[in-house]
Specification:
The complex is a heterodimer of chains A (150) and B (502). In chain A, 38% of the residues lie in helices and 17% in strands. Chain A is built from five helices and seven strands; from the N terminus they run ββαβαβαβαβαβ. In chain A, helix 1 crosses helix 5. The N and C termini of chain A lie close together (9 Å). Chain B folds into four domains: 124 residues, no CATH class; 101 residues, 2-Layer Sandwich (Beta-Lactamase), CATH 3.30.450.20; 88 residues; 150 residues, Histidine kinase-like ATPase, C-terminal domain (Heat Shock Protein 90, 2-Layer Sandwich). In chain B, helix 1 crosses helix 2.
């Protein structure tokens, strides 16, 4: 693994956060994960404001986005990112419990890069997270301006 | 003229012109001969009344032309035989006034007779016509009495002038009771629009029809479909209104019942729609809220197993495994239920679908489980049909997966896919296997949600597959059914309506 992109995980459920981080840790992908607990925090991170005001301005290599979030929900975050010239190149992967067609359609309409339904089975879940992490944080060449650790 | 009864009359048929001339000659000759004969008796001075009588007879029975001939003959005869000089056509100056008086009288009598005769003839003709008309009218009136339809006539003041038997049957009054009565006072009619408007329409077009409510003789109200026709005289003045009525009280009653039922139905539909919406919201929340804790259970149990593998005894290890399996099964169950509920909610895109291609796709998906098995596939050519592609694909996947699953104990398993084409208006597709089959006693339970005919240990599954199949096929307007024998295989059929152009 030559480089590791930073992953922004937007997830309000602490259990899901822990399980996701555990899955990523298993494959040494957890080092560069930033967790935002709701949509507002995710946007704060992306716009370097509030508690993220001091961070360096690079974009994450990928954003793992839950749809059902407090304050600002996932679809609104997605819309904000894809309609902002500075952010719309960030790959966004929706990672959700919802298999609802209308959520999928809405996400793709807004320009999501991938849509993943969290598997119930833990092995499948770990596999999905691992593959997502490897693909987006390692294999995929992120757009210029993203932070990538060499 | 139809119905004109032949009547013996003082005024017999007019004679033909030849007969008329003959009569003139005969009557004048007879008068002349009589006068000459009586002159010999001697009775003088009878020639004038005789000739006048002959003229009257000729004019009366022979008509104008015969009268003219008789006038000519009698004038000549009078001149020749009765004016000086006798037996010549010359007239002596002394007899000239006498001759002129005769000629004048003869002309007057003739003229009166002819005029009288003509007037009589015209009168007779008018009377005959009248008689014919009366006969016709009487017959028509009796015909109107034969019909069961209610027919009555009232004049422009609303006074009833005709009332048929149908009217008596509907309203209860006899003709004798109502003729001469005011229709308004009798019926207390409720009009659907102002009466002035109805009258204007009637006068303009000669017709009006609509629904009226009237009172019968027993005081009850009746709803009738009423048609009015205006009758006019020769000068186009309105004289009477003919009204026909049909009793539609029962029909109106049924209509209002149907309306009430429809309203109720509408209310129920609205209720069902709102319940359906609630169910949708429920399904959505299951999708989100139930899956998350389930995933956590599975995830943390797995972590527990991994971290505590060394300290867990064999029994505890099995418990952990059961928890994980159960969580996974419940996840599948929720997924299947959500898919099932989506059938009713999602939008459908109906197109012409190649069943051949669909079967190939379904085999790719459902046949994976059969890769290690010895299965003899028998797949016939299938026609195209009309429906929602992804839904029909789900039908085939479910049926084929079932066939694969329930032939698990067969070697070789045989699975046949084909169609029957005995019906013109529908296409019947079947999936047949030589698997464990089922008891036809339970055939009604096959397609219910969560209905399983086999223990879970023997054949895993959620019990939703066939319910999904049924729901999709029903939404296409088709049917599903199955035939089976325990241990002798099963055949599942579904039908799709054949739409035009395919």
């Amino acid at each position: 693994m030559s480089a590791l992109g930073r992953i922004l995980l937007v997830e309000d459920d602490p259990n899901d956060v822990e399980l996701t981080l555990t899955a990523l840790e298993d494959y040494n992908l957890a080092n560069e994960v930033v967790v935002a607990r709701d949509g507002a925090e995710a946007l704060d991170y992306l716009y370097c404001r509030e508690k993220f005001a001091a961070r360096s301005g690079d974009n994450p290599a990928v954003l793992l986005l839950d749809l059902k979030l407090p304050k600002i929900d996932g679809l609104e975050v997605l819309q904000q990112i894809k309609s902002d010239d500075k952010l719309n190149m960030i790959p966004v992967v929706v990672l959700t419990s919802s298999r609802e067609e209308k959520d999928m359609v809405a996400s793709y309409r807004l320009g999501v890069n991938a849509y993943v339904v969290k598997p119930v089975d833990f092995h499948e879940f770990v596999n999905a997270i691992k593959e997502l992490g490897i693909f987006w944080a390692v294999i995929n060449e992120p757009p210029p301006g993203s932070l990538k650790k060499t | 003229m139809i119905g004109a009864a032949p009547r013996k009359s003082l005024y017999s048929k007019p004679l033909s012109s030849v007969q008329g001339y003959g009569l003139a000659v005969l009557s004048v000759s007879t008068a002349l001969a009589g006068a000459l004969l009586l002159e010999r008796l001697p009775m003088r001075g009878v020639e004038i009344p005789f000739f006048l009588f002959a003229l009257a007879i000729s004019a009366w029975y022979g008509g104008g032309k015969a009268a003219a001939l008789a006038l000519l003959l009698s004038t000549v005869g009078f001149d020749y035989f009765f004016t000086e000089p006798l037996h010549t056509l010359a007239i002596s100056p002394s007899d000239l006034p006498y001759f002129f008086v005769f000629a004048l009288f003869a002309s007057l009598v003739t003229w009166f007779s002819v005029v009288r005769r003509r007037v009589e003839a015209e009168l007779r003709l008018a009377r005959d016509r009248l008689q014919t008309e009366v006969t016709e009218r009487t017959q028509q009136a009796s015909l109107l009495n034969l019909t069961h339809d209610t027919i009555f006539v009232r004049d422009m003041d609303g006074v009833i002038t005709y009332w048929n038997r149908g009217a008596q049957e509907l309203y209860g009054w006899t003709a004798a009771e109502v003729i001469g009565q005011s229709a308004d006072q009798l019926f207390h009619t409720a009009f659907p629009e102002p009466i002035e408007g109805i009258r204007t329409k009637l006068l303009n077009s000669g017709r009006w029809d609509g629904e009226l409510e009237k009172t019968k003789s027993d005081g009850t109200r009746v709803v009738v479909a009423s048609r009015w026709s205006l009758r006019r005289d020769d000068q186009q003045r309105p004289t009477a209104i003919l009204e026909t009525n049909n009793d539609i009280t029962q029909r109106k009653l049924r209509e209002s019942e149907i309306r009430v039922l429809n309203e109720e139905l509408g209310k129920r539909t609205a209720e069902l729609e709102s319940i359906n919406k609630e169910l949708e919201a429920f399904a959505y929340s299951i999708s989100h809220d139930l899956r998350a804790p389930l995933r956590h259970m599975a995830g943390y149990t797995e972590l527990l197993r991994k971290n505590s593998a060394s300290v867990l005894d064999e029994k505890s290890g099995r418990y952990v495994a059961v928890i994980m399996e159960s969580a996974t099964r419940m996840g599948n169950l929720i997924d299947d239920l959500l898919a099932f509920s989506r059938i009713g909610r999602s939008e459908w895109h109906k197109t012409t679908v190649s069943l051949d291609q669909l079967v190939q796709e379904a085999l790719m998906e459902a046949g994976q489980a059969a890769n290690q098995r010895n299965i003899a596939w028998k797949i016939g050519a299938l026609p195209s049909c009309y429906g929602d592609r992804s839904m029909l694909r789900l039908v085939l996947i479910n049926l084929i997966s079932n066939a694969v699953k329930f032939t698990g104990t067969r070697d070789p398993a045989e699975i046949e896919i084909g169609y029957l084409n005995q019906e013109q208006h529908e296409l019947v597709v079947f999936v047949r296997d030589n698997g464990v089959g089922f008891d036809m006693k339970y055939v009604n339970k096959l397609f219910g949600v969560f209905q399983r005919l086999h223990p879970a240990e023997a054949f895993e599954g959620t019990g939703i597959g066939l319910a999904t199949v049924q729901r999709i096929v029903h939404r296409h307007g088709g049917r599903v059914w199955a035939e089976g024998l325990v241990d002798r295989g099963a055949t599942f059929y579904f039908s799709l309506p054949q739409s035009e152009g395919i």
